[in-house]
Structures are given as structure tokens and as C-alpha cells.
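Re: that backbone. C-alpha cells:
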């Protein structure tokens, strides 16, 4: 059993990456959570794709990877100083694996150390955001 918990102030869309196709796209309102089961058992790696900001920002999360390093997600705003930052993490609650999205103020040093891995930003968002390395 799995659960996604949206503790952020953002609308989150998500779907199961089923390898050859994607699952049904569902929405999660701010401060909402949903329990679910996996659609297909024949998928080797169970991965959830979280979509933010009208799908301009996507984050891939392996939901069975327990205690993964929290992922920092930047939602571009056109002004890099005011970009909204979210943190995606997971944990176990009894027998349920929980993926959590939360608001969090993050320093530049934390962004550089996490390198925002698994984040895919399309060309439109890429033009409005500035990344420092």
C-alpha cells in the first residue's frame, strides 16, 4: 500500500510510470493525501512522476526506495530569487510507504549539494529560470 501526502501549498499532478505507458494522471490538492495500490505488478521499478506548475516541472521518484535523499524542487517564477522551493521525501508508516511533498525554505548551498536530480524542466521553464553550479 502506498500514500502520497501533499503538505505543500501547490496543486500536484502525479501518475505511475509503467515503462511502456503512463498510468492515470491524478491530482492532489494542497494538504490532501491519497492512498493507492500499484496498477501493474509486472513493472520492475515502481516510479511515480510528480508534475508541478502545469507540468513544466516533473520529478521522478522511486516509491520503493526507502529513506531516499530528499529532493529539492524549484518551481521557476521568472525571478530566481523568488523561485518557490518544495521538498519531496519518503518514509514508512507501518506497512504503508509514504511519499511527501512539503513547503520548505532552502538555502542555495542545499540546492547545490542536492543538484536537483531527477528534475526535468521543459524548454519554456528553462528559459525563465537561472541555475548556478
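Recovered sequence:
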Amino acid at each position: 500500500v502506498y500514500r502520497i501526502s501533499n503538505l505543500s501549498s501547490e496543486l500536484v499532478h502525479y501518475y505511475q510510470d509503467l515503462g511502456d505507458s503512463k498510468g492515470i494522471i491524478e491530482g492532489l490538492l494542497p494538504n490532501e493525501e491519497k492512498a493507492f495500490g500499484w496498477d501493474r505488478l509486472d513493472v520492475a521499478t515502481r516510479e511515480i512522476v510528480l508534475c508541478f506548475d502545469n507540468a513544466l516541472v516533473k520529478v521522478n521518484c522511486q516509491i520503493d526506495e526507502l529513506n531516499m535523499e530528499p529532493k529539492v524542487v524549484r518551481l521557476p517564477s521568472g525571478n530566481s530569487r523568488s523561485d518557490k522551493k518544495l521538498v519531496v521525501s519518503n518514509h514508512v508508516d507501518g506497512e504503508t510507504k509514504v511519499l511527501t511533498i512539503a513547503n520548505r525554505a532552502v538555502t542555495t548551498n542545499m540546492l547545490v549539494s542536492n543538484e536537483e536530480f531527477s528534475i526535468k524542466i521543459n524548454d519554456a521553464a528553462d528559459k525563465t529560470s537561472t541555475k548556478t553550479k
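Residues 105-133 have pLDDT under 50 and may be disordered. The two ends are 38 Å apart (CA to CA).
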